[in-house]
User: Which sequence fits this backbone?
């Protein structure tokens, strides 16, 4: 059974989960991480964030290892910014009656995003929806005008000269 995928009953609540019994044991670093750790041992360094930052500035270190060292060290120096979501209902936007109003709302949403009053994800979504509205309404307006033109041409042809 070595190297085969076998069904393991009761595997963390997933009775039909397939697992490889010859996989890397839990807690064993992958090759890239092991290379980074070996580089630290070779230099006699600890595995702390300051040493990782120092390694990233070494000229003879492989660029891939530099990036990995920075990836490990960055959380110690830079905190992650929590995503901010705003409620869209409080923006005071109404359904536009025409393309001009939709354009005004797009400008307002862009200004709110620039001022930090609205997060970029929501502003992009709202602008995309309003842009779609403008395209659809413009197409409908053109179709209406075309039908009116066809009716006028038909009426004109029916008039004797």
Assistant:
């Amino acid at each position: 059974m070595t190297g085969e995928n076998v069904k393991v009953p009761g595997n963390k609540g997933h009775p039909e989960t397939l697992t490889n019994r010859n996989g890397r044991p839990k807690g064993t670093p992958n090759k890239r991480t092991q290379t980074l750790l070996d580089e630290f041992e070779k230099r006699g360094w600890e595995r702390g964030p300051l040493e990782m930052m120092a390694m990233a500035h070494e000229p003879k270190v492989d660029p891939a290892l530099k990036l990995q060292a920075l990836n490990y060290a960055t959380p110690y120096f830079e905190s992650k910014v929590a995503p901010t979501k705003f409620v869209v209902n409080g923006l005071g936007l109404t359904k536009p009656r025409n393309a001009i109003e939709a354009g005004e709302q797009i400008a307002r949403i862009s200004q709110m995003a620039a001022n930090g009053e609205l997060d970029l994800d929501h502003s992009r979504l709202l602008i995309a929806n309003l842009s779609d509205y403008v395209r659809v309404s413009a197409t409908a307006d053109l179709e209406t005008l075309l039908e009116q033109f066809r009716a006028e041409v038909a009426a004109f042809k029916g008039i004797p000269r």
Notes: The chain has a mean pLDDT of 75. The chain has five helices and two strands.
